[in-house]
Fold each of these.
Amino acid sequence: MVSDIFLSVWAVARVAGCFSEQCPPPPSSLRVDGMDIVGEQELQALREVIRSQRLCRERKGNAVNAFEEAFAGHIGRKYVYALNSGTSANEASLIAAGVRPGDEVICPPCSFIATSLSAVAVGAIPVFADVDPRTLILDPDAIESKITKRTKAVVVVHLFGQPARMDRIVDVARANDVRLVEDCAQAYDATFRGRMVGTFGDVSCFSLQQSKHITAGEGGMIATDDEEAYRKAVLHSNIGLPSYRYGVQKPVPQMAAGLPTRGHLAFGHNHRMSELQASVALVQLGKIAQFNQRRAVLAGLIAKCLGDLEWVQLAHVYPNTIPNWWEYPIRLRKTARMTAHDFCKRCEEAGFSLSCYKEVNYLEAVYQEMNHVRRTSLGIRLPPHVRYEAGICPEAEKGASRLLSISCHHASDPGPFEERLKELRKFIIDLMSRK
Ligand SMILES: Cc1ncc(COP(=O)(O)O)c(C=O)c1O
């Protein structure tokens, strides 16, 4: 993201003719492309859809159906519903979990903002619980401390591809009769005690956006074993039409005033996945093992090249978990005597584009506004115990100030990637010894 913005500014400056010694070249990301994100197979799949002249999902024999079935088999859940984005999947997962307007939904402050804003979108109230500062993942005790009579669900995010402590979190959710949603947008195929993330909660959701482990440019899906949850997700995402599959019974549309109706059973959006997206997603799913392996190699190189530096701390990994890194998180130790923000700025000036962590959701303007007017963006009144202001999750703020991440996207070629890491290592040693 940072490098994207920088590249656009640089491109504009270049067109304007100011690309000279005064205008520095853009910092290149550590990523060194060696593998195409999408290739011939995806192109072939797209050609087939285009040849078919059917780009919108239909009931039988189409790419969306094939992708849903393949993904259900991949993670081992009964029902999968494919959507047009991960954000739509976040929203559908809350509806599937039974969240209704006015309910409270416990969310981590540290996640892409879609996780918590989806609660707002369905008329609910996001309640932020604090995180483990080592991982920025929800702390089970903090979840418990935020449960009230109005709490309907908790959304746990397996941040950066690291599984949350699911044993404790499942216990807290069960003991308090709260539904559990897993946001797996950043964590395909990661495991906790040998079990894949996305199989612990009542519902789980995924993203197929460009940066993810597999992509269709945009896209998402929800997965569940609960037929009722599946039905709710379909209605919400398909304008209330019961386009159920997996043998789930559909009501027959009724006659009204002597006229046939179409059978819209509930309020809903059109958040369907298209055939074009699904054809690409299906090919990508077939490559996921290869992508995962490449990501593990790249993360290993980051650990090898930077792990012994006294100023940085590698990702903290919980016992019995196998992460599948989306980006590789690094914490600056106190000995670095600078924030992650300043550190990333210095690295960027030297041509290394790292991502400083910027996702403490309640600090964003949209939450500040809700806090000010004491209503959510959909007009739901905030109860007095819900506040969106600096200091409500101190561990999140402390942890975020020290956290940065390095892309370990599978497109990178390990050889040149390692060379860039070695250059970064030298730069860090030099930077720290100059202070
Ligand atoms: C944790 C998390 N949740 C939800 C989303 C939303 O996914 P999308 O960008 O596909 O809408 C993302 C995407 O970046 C994410 O990282």
Amino acid sequence: MDISLEAALTGRRSVRAFAAESPPREMVAEALRLAEFAPNAGNRQQIWRVVCADSATLARVGRTQTVLRAKFNAGKPLVVTEAELAIAASAFYDAPVAVALFAPSRFHFAAADAYVYAQTLCLSAFGLGLASCIVGGVGDAVGADNGRKWRVPEGYAPQCYVLLGAQRGPLPAVHPRKYPPVVWA
Ligand SMILES: Cc1cc2nc3c(=O)[nH]c(=O)nc-3n(C[C@H](O)[C@H](O)[C@H](O)COP(=O)(O)O)c2cc1C
């Protein structure tokens, strides 16, 4: 990885179109290892990470996530039916890999820790030549069956996901910066 920090910060984009092939396992492992240097609350380093490259599981969790997000936005109970799943688009687009990030649900900084790790992972992935996108978590799209398979510790809940893969098509354009001005007090 010989990319300048400025090039990484300004060059990383959220990519939503991926090539079908999974990135090499060693590359994903290295991106995950580098992201372990993310700041984290109380230095607990407790984010539980699951790399999923199974297309059927990705489709189900991604579709569930889409339905949960729509329900949340509509102020409806976070209950998902098979009929709703059948017609939902996946929140994971066509990514070959999603990293699910879990944290203890009764920890005040659970979401903060997971998103800081997620962003660090996007940057480490970018440095290694991988495209990425954070997908915000709403409710539990993973479900108890996958949770058991993925050895998610008791009391942990999904916080967010990071899609990884090779980008398909051109890199998305840089969004113009529109932050409010900085106040120097
Ligand atoms: C907390 C958070 C949640 C996000 N959730 C989603 C998401 O669910 N789906 C998605 O496509 N992008 C998601 N993104 C990516 C943002 O849309 C993206 O960062 C933003 O549009 C700026 O684009 P850029 O990352 O290419 O600079 C999320 C980003 C953050 C920080």
